[in-house]
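Example record for the data management plan.
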Amino acid sequence: MLSERELESCYLGQFIPVHYHHNMLMDTNRMHSFRAAIAHVVQPGMKVLELGGGTGVLSWFAAQRADKVYCVDFNPDMVQEARRFLAMNPGGDKVEVIHADAFEYLPPEPVDVVICEMIHVAMLREKQVEVIEQFKRRYLQRFGGPLPVFLPEAVLMAAQPLQQEYDFEGFYAPIVQFQQPGMLHPGTVEMSQPAVYSVIDFTQPNETSYSWEGKFVIDRDGTVNAIRFVTKNILSVVQERATTIDWLNHFMSLPLDKPVPVKQGDVLQVRFAYRAGGSIPSLQARLSASVLYHAALQPQVVAYA
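Corresponding structural encoding:
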């Protein structure tokens, strides 16, 4: 009999299909950014732990420099897949693939770096925040400090009002949409600039729930009928170049239950609340927007020469 958390894990992402992990291998932005960050952080002689290893590719990147890599996954299908792939690649023998729950596992020895990519847009569905926070407590109890370096090191999350097209060959369907960053998206109109609503620093204690109320100045006339969620993962800080190695998740656009007509200059108030690792519908149920300030209703100031 599965526990409540195990049932939720099956639903929310810990047992995502194998082919989903194959798609991640084909995501060149993700692969390039993680490879560069791991090469920067992992130094020769280090010991590395990956929580939620999937195909084992990130552990393999680490094994190119580390002495030992522990790769943990709770899905037995992925454990088998990772072992199969790592056996095909040089240096894969330095990776020990372990079938275990990331919520409970501790390595047999202290490690220098912890890689964890249980990341969904807005930190929904997957358990990145909760897994890392619990790991830090267990690790300090077992080994004391200091904590390992975490990869990613931090996460920035932002929200942005949109006017989103929901016409599909004449069929109206306001659905959740995921969009590739850095591309033009016909049917998507940005109604204001994004605003950051949370910054997660994995070196510090982090809350596992978010409640936000923010204001946006509307840039153009139209209708706000969706809120875009943006998640930027700071994989590694490159101090010597005063820069970072980043990975931007796909944008997630959530339709509003009640679209809001707006004019340029209006101030839109957006509210939402959810917990890290929760479902997308749980965020949608507590997502709302309203016009706080109508620019057209304010008295005009007339300047006299």
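Summary line stored alongside the record: Residues 301-305 have pLDDT under 50 and may be disordered.
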